[in-house]
């Protein structure tokens, strides 16, 4: 009989190679054991084109069923191609504001479906570095809804 095993968190990350391994290492250090769900746009597919629940809600349900994570970590990153990259925004402030709105929208959906789980949100910042790219995580404070 297989042994039941749990993890501390499930982390949603974008496939963008520039994020890895920095993002993986950051969340391993911060959260310990975690399931990682990596798709283009990270959190983009929580909603389908018609506004209904998307592909990632089903993946989240599987993670919860199989590994019962205490925390659901939602991320979005700067210069994400799935959102048109940084060039799709008039300024860095506009890009960050957009990303916070996306995180708020997805966090509300997830928290509504799983009220007993802690939901954390992060904006991952990409910056050029001498040996490639550096990723830093910025916790995005999401106001609790009443």
Q: Could you explain the architecture of this structure?
A:
It is a single chain. This protein is α/β, with parallel strands linked by helices and 146 residues long. The chain has 3 helices and 5 strands, in the order E-H-E-H-E-H-E-E. It has a 5-stranded mixed sheet with strand order 2-1-3-4-5, sandwiched between helices. The longest helix is centred in the last third of the chain and has 22 residues, at 92-113. The chain is globular. 29% of the residues are buried. The model has no long low-confidence stretch (mean pLDDT 91).
CA(first)-CA(last) distance: 43 Å
Approximately what portion of the residues adopt beta-strand conformation? 25-35%
Structural class: alpha/beta
Please state the overall shape, judged from the principal axes of the Cα atoms: globular
The helix/strand series, from N terminus to C terminus, equals: EHEHEHEE
Low-confidence stretches: none
Feature tags:
146 residues, alpha/beta, globular
In short:
The chain is built from 3 helices and 5 strands, in the order βαβαβαββ. It has 146 residues and is an alpha/beta fold.
Please render the helix and strand layout as text:
Blueprint: E1 9-14, H1 22-31, E2 34-39, H2 55-67, E3 71-77, H3 92-113, E4 118-129, E5 132-139
Parallel strand pairs: 1-2, 1-3, 3-4
Antiparallel strand pairs: 4-5
């Amino acid at each position: 009989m297989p042994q039941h095993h749990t993890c501390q968190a499930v982390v949603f990350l974008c496939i963008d190679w520039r994020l890895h391994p920095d993002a993986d290492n950051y969340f391993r250090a911060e959260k310990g054991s975690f399931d990682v769900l990596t798709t283009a746009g990270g959190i983009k597919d929580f909603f389908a084109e018609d506004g209904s629940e998307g592909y990632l809600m089903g993946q989240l349900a599987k993670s919860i069923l199989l590994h019962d994570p205490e925390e659901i970590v939602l991320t979005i990153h700067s210069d994400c191609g799935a959102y048109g990259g940084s060039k799709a925004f008039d300024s860095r402030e506009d890009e960050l504001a957009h990303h916070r709105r996306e995180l708020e929208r997805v966090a509300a959906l997830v928290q509504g479906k799983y009220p007993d789980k802690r939901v954390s949100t992060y904006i991952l910042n990409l910056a050029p570095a001498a040996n490639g790219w550096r990723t830093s995580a910025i916790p995005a404070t999401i106001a609790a809804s009443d």
